[in-house]
Structure formats: C-alpha cells, structure tokens
Write a structure and sequence with these properties.
It contains 6 helices and no strands. It is an all-alpha fold.
C-alpha cells in the first residue's frame, strides 16, 4: 500500500497540530510501534551527536552502532531537506 499525497498532507497537518510534549508522546506512542519509536529515538540521538560536531567514528563508538548507520544520518544532516538542521538549531543543539 502506498500513501497518496492527501494522506501525506493529512499526516503533516496532524503533526503540525501538536501543542505540547504530552500530545506528541500520545500520538507517537499510538502511531508507531515500540520498535519504530526506539529506532527514531536512536536516529535523533545520532543526529544530535553529529550536529554537536562529533566525528562519525566517535558517534558510532559512543552509541554502539555501525558506521554505515552513522554515515546515513550524516548524509541526511548535510544533504537532506534541512529538517534535522532546523530542529537542531530550534532546540539549540548545534555548535556555537
């Protein structure tokens, strides 16, 4: 099953309607499986470490994950849509 454009727009609207951390938690716990939520949390941890200036090898060692997983996150941080960088800056998690 593939998502149509309306379904994606609806999903984006759903996420933009979140008012606080409690609502965010409620939605994420219902919409994702525990494994999906864990995977996303791990990815965000990697992005935060990379955004702080840690090397890919140091992040892999600190987080206990493969360098290929780190490389993918690094690629998205550098060449993705800008979402990771935006939220790192919004949450003040980047280097000064």
């Amino acid at each position: 099953m593939t998502s149509d454009k309306k379904a994606l727009r609806d999903l984006y609207e759903l996420f933009s309607s979140i008012e606080d951390e409690k609502e965010s938690e409620m939605l994420l716990r219902d919409i994702l499986t525990p494994q999906e939520l864990e995977t996303i949390a791990e990815r965000w941890q990697l992005i935060q470490a990379l955004g702080s200036g840690m090397s890919q090898r140091d992040v892999a060692k600190k987080c206990g994950v493969s360098i290929s997983k780190i490389t993918r996150g690094s690629h998205e941080l550098q060449y993705g849509s800008g979402g990771f960088r935006h939220f790192l800056e919004k949450l003040h998690m980047t280097r000064p």
